[in-house]
Backbone:
C-alpha cells in the first residue's frame, strides 16, 4: 500500500474513534443526568418557585363610607361654607327633630342600600333628648354630630333647585255647574307589582297596571282617557274643582287645600299615580316658542292656559301622568305631610331623590334666588331637611324647596329654576375623611420606559378633522372668544390624550391537554 493511502486510512480510523467516544460520553452524561433528576425528584422534591406578590389593583373589597352613583364629593371645613354662621340653625334643628320622630332602627334602610342608611339613628337619639332654645347651641349640635360634604352630579360644579307649595283652591263636595272637575282617589283596580292594592304608600315612579279579573294586567289609563271620564261614576270623587288647570297644579305640587262652600277645608295628599312619566308642560311651552325660557314660571303657564282653553286641554294631555289623592285629617293650621310621613316646614323642608337619599338628611343649600321679585338675586343660605320626594326630582344634588301654602308661596316657588351649591351633612359615623384613610393607595405610576412603549397620542390632523362635540357646539360665542388662542404645531406633531397608560399584559399560562401531551411524548420516544 502506498504511503499516502496508509496516512489517509490512519486519519480516518482516528476520526471514527473520536466520534464514537464523543457519542458514548454524551450518552453517559444524559443517563447520569436522568438518574440524578429521578433520584432528586423522588427523595428531594424541588422547592416551589416563589410567586410575586399580588398587585394592589383591583383594590380589595373594603367598605366605603357611602357610595352614591354618579356623584362627586368634596369634604369641607365648616368655615369653608359660605353663609353657614348666618343661618337660623334653631329653625333647622326643630325641622330635624320632626324628621327624627319617624327615624328608628326598625324603619331605616340598611347602610348598603342608601348613602346614609341607619347612621341617622344616633344623631336623632341625641336630638330627641335635647330641647334647644338657643341658636348657638343648635349650630353646635350640627357641627358636633355631622361632617360637611359638598355634593354634586359627576362633572358638574353645582346642584339644581326648584320650588313647590300647597295650593289653596275653591271646591265643592258635589258636582255643580261651577264645580265640574273631579278630584279622584285611588281606584281599586290600580295595581303595582310588589305592593298590595290597599297599601298605604305606593311608589311615585315605575309601572302601574289595571287589573282585569285575577291575572290579566294592562297599562292604566292615561290623563286624556281619565279626563274624558273613563273612571267617572265609580264613587272615586273626593270633591270637585272649578278648572282643570287647578287640578293639574294640585297634582304637580302633590297636595292641596280645598275650601268648600260651607267654609270647611278638605286636605288632600298624593296617594298614587297612573304609571306614566311626568312631562313638564312648561318645557313644552318653551320648546314651542310660546314662553321664553327666562320668563317661564307657573304664573305664566296659568295665564296662557286661561287665555287659550283649547290649547290648554291639548297641553295638559301631553303630560300623560295622572295623580290620585287621599283625604288627610289636617287642620288649616297644619302644614302638608311629606313622603316621610311628617308635616313639612315652610322654608326648611325639601324634596329629594328617594332612590339616592334618606329622609331626615340635612342639606345646606347656598346661592342666590329670586325670592323678593322676579329679577331679584336674594342671598339664600339655609340648612334644609329632606322630608319629601317627587317624580321629577332626580339626581344627587337636586331639590324642591317647600315654601308653604297660598298664592304668595306659589308665586315664589313658581319662579325657581336655579343652580345652587349643595352641602350634605353626613353623620360622624360615616366621616369620609376618617374612613377613607384606611383605603389602599394606588399602584405607582408606570415608568418612563413603559410610557414610551405605549404613547397615548393621536395625530394633530385627526383632531382638526374631527367633528366638534355636542358640548362645543352648544358653547356660547362669548366662551369661544374668551378661550386662549391655539398654539401652532408642527406638521407631524401629536396631541396627548387623557387616557391612562396601559400596562403590558402578562404572558398567559396555557395548559396542554392530554392529547397534546401524549403526542409530544410519542415524538420524543421516536426520536
Residues:
Amino acid at each position: 500500500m502506498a504511503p499516502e493511502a496508509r496516512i489517509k486510512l490512519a486519519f480516518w480510523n482516528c476520526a471514527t474513534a473520536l466520534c464514537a467516544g464523543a457519542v458514548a460520553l454524551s450518552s453517559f452524561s444524559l443517563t447520569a443526568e436522568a438518574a440524578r433528576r429521578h433520584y432528586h425528584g423522588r427523595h428531594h422534591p424541588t422547592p416551589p418557585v416563589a410567586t410575586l406578590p399580588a398587585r394592589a389593583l383591583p383594590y380589595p373589597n373594603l367598605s366605603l363610607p357611602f357610595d352614591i352613583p354618579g356623584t362627586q364629593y368634596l369634604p369641607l371645613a365648616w368655615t369653608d361654607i359660605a353663609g353657614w354662621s348666618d343661618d337660623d340653625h334653631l329653625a333647622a334643628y326643630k325641622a330635624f327633630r320632626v324628621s327624627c320622630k319617624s327615624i328608628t332602627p326598625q324603619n331605616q334602610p340598611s347602610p348598603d342600600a342608601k348613602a346614609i342608611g341607619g347612621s341617622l339613628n344616633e344623631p336623632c337619639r341625641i336630638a330627641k333628648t335635647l330641647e334647644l332654645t338657643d341658636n348657638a347651641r343648635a349650630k353646635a349640635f350640627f357641627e358636633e354630630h355631622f361632617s360637611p360634604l359638598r355634593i354634586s352630579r359627576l362633572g358638574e360644579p353645582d346642584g339644581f333647585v326648584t320650588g313647590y307649595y300647597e295650593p289653596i283652591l275653591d271646591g265643592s263636595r258635589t258636582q255643580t255647574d261651577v264645580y265640574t272637575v273631579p278630584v279622584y282617589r285611588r281606584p281599586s283596580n290600580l295595581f303595582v307589582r310588589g305592593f298590595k292594592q290597599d297599601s298605604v304608600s305606593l311608589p311615585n315612579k315605575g309601572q302601574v297596571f289595571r287589573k282585569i279579573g285575577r291575572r290579566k294586567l294592562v297599562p292604566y289609563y292615561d290623563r286624556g282617557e281619565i279626563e274624558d271620564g273613563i273612571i267617572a261614576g265609580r264613587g272615586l270623587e273626593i270633591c270637585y274643582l272649578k278648572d282643570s288647570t287647578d287640578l293639574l297644579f294640585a297634582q304637580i305640587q302633590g297636595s292641596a287645600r280645598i275650601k268648600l262652600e260651607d267654609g270647611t277645608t278638605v286636605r288632600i295628599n298624593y296617594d298614587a299615580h297612573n304609571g306614566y312619566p311626568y312631562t313638564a308642560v312648561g318645557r313644552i311651552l318653551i320648546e314651542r316658542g310660546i314662553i321664553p325660557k327666562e320668563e317661564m314660571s307657573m304664573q305664566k303657564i296659568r295665564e296662557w292656559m286661561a287665555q287659550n282653553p283649547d290649547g290648554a286641554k291639548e297641553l295638559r294631555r301631553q303630560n300623560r301622568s295622572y295623580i290620585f289623592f287621599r283625604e288627610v285629617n289636617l287642620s288649616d293650621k297644619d302644614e302638608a305631610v311629606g313622603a316621610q310621613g311628617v308635616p313639612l316646614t315652610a322654608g326648611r323642608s325639601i324634596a329629594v331623590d328617594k332612590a339616592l337619599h334618606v329622609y331626615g338628611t340635612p342639606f345646606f343649600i347656598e346661592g342666590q334666588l329670586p325670592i323678593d321679585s322676579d329679577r331679584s338675586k336674594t342671598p339664600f343660605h339655609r340648612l334644609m331637611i329632606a322630608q319629601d320626594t317627587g317624580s321629577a326630582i332626580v339626581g344627587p344634588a337636586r331639590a324642591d324647596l317647600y315654601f308653604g301654602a297660598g298664592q304668595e308661596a306659589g308665586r315664589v316657588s313658581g319662579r325657581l329654576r336655579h343652580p345652587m351649591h349643595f352641602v350634605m351633612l353626613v353623620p360622624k359615623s360615616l366621616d369620609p375623611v376618617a374612613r377613607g384613610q384606611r383605603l389602599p393607595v394606588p399602584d405607582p405610576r408606570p415608568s418612563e420606559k413603559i410610557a414610551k412603549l405605549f404613547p397615548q397620542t393621536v395625530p394633530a390632523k385627526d383632531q382638526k378633522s374631527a367633528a366638534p362635540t355636542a358640548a362645543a357646539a352648544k358653547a356660547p360665542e362669548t366662551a369661544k372668544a374668551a378661550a386662549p388662542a391655539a398654539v401652532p404645531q408642527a406638521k407631524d406633531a401629536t396631541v396627548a390624550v387623557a387616557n391612562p397608560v396601559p400596562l403590558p399584559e402578562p404572558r398567559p399560562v396555557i395548559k396542554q391537554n392530554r392529547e397534546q401531551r401524549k403526542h409530544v411524548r410519542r415524538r420524543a420516544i421516536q426520536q
Remarks:
- Residues 125 and 463 are 59 Å apart (CA to CA).
- The radius of gyration is 37 Å.
- DSSP finds 16 helices and 19 strands in the chain.
- Confidence is low (pLDDT under 50) at residues 461-498.
